[in-house]
Write a structure and sequence with these properties.
alpha/beta, TIM Barrel, nine-stranded parallel sheet, 15% strand, globular
Length: 314
């Protein structure tokens, strides 16, 4: 087990945008790089520049970032990838893992997993024209595990920087447990650098994974970073006292809240975003789970701050 593992911040659509990444890394350490939430392809966007606002270099100075695309047509894939390269990013990630049905039904994200021929055809046509290097983020399959068994041998000859595998099926969404047996089968088929993703929410589970999967080169953490923002530092051997933890958690919340208040228009948008965060962030305050409803039900900033104070005051 390496003493300095490579740790990634997973992309959580609607949460881990550039502002969140900046605020998070100003309060918590341990994360080495992040995959940005995917850029949603639009054939005729009304505001084309708005699609890439989140990855503009001036908005991303705090953490090494890999932009992510979810395009499934060659021309859109190449055009967007090369546009991202011109912004200064040497690598992009192709999302073959998003399980959301409205995405999957368009043969995007995890919806492409049952179609390895479509995936390899796009790679055959796109890679010779790509300026940035390419990595892939995928699932064990969409409908069944055989889909990853079929795809991975086909990927071995492509010049991919790494393959990130979320150890669930797409149809599971984020429900149920990760499937470590089928992830183990994938390990034997991957010839590229391999990154594990899925349910790393405790130091004990990370240690179990790291002790079992020696071929894994990196570890991606998503919801676990929101429910325990100290998880990355714990993995790297840094432990804070209870007083230090509470102080840092409160400072992070206040910074995120004020930053979002400055950016978003009106209390509705602000409270909506913070409620999304609290669905996971409540995990950082053991014993306070019963008070989450008080946050999710508030409709004013005053009542929100009152509910938050009750949780943080312990």
């Amino acid at each position: 087990m390496t003493t300095n593992p490579l740790l990634y911040m997973a992309p959580l659509k609607g949460i881990t945008d550039s502002l969140f990444r900046k605020v998070f890394t100003s309060h918590f350490s341990g994360i080495d790089r992040a995959i940005a939430p995917f850029i949603n392809p639009q054939s005729k966007p009304v505001y084309p520049n708005k699609l890439i606002t989140d990855i503009l270099p001036e908005n991303n100075c705090s953490l090494a970032l890999v932009p992510q695309i979810i395009n499934s047509d060659v021309e859109g894939f190449v055009s967007l990838a090369n546009q991202i390269y011109e912004l200064g990013y040497p690598e992009i990630n192709w999302n073959l893992g998003c399980p959301v049905r409205m995405v999957a039904h368009k043969k995007r994200g995890a919806g492409l997993m049952p179609h390895p021929d479509v995936i390899t055809e796009l790679l055959d046509r796109a890679i010779p024209r790509l300026k940035p290097a390419l990595s892939i983020k995928m699932r064990l399959g969409y409908n069944d595990y055989q889909e990853s068994m079929n795809l991975l041998p086909l990927l071995k000859d492509y010049p991919l920087t790494e393959i990130i595998i979320h150890a669930r099926l797409g149809k599971q969404l984020y429900r149920g447990t990760v499937d470590l047996e089928n992830f183990s089968r994938c390990c034997s088929l991957v010839t590229h650098n391999l990154v594990y993703n899925g349910d790393i929410t405790t130091l004990a589970f990370y240690r179990e994974l790291a002790g079992r999967f020696h071929s894994v080169k990196g570890w991606m953490i998503g919801r676990g970073l929101l429910s325990n923002p100290f998880l990355a530092t714990e993995i790297k051997g840094i432990i804070y006292s209870e007083d230090e933890r509470r102080e840092k958690l409160c400072a992070f919340h206040d910074d995120l809240f004020s930053s979002l208040k400055h950016r978003l228009s009106g209390p509705g948008h602000l409270l909506g975003r913070m409620k999304q965060v609290w669905i996971y962030f409540i995990g950082a305050f053991p014993g306070q789970e019963k008070n989450l409803k008080k946050i999710t039900r508030v409709s004013s900033e005053k009542n929100y701050l009152k509910a938050v104070h009750k949780i943080m005051g312990g």
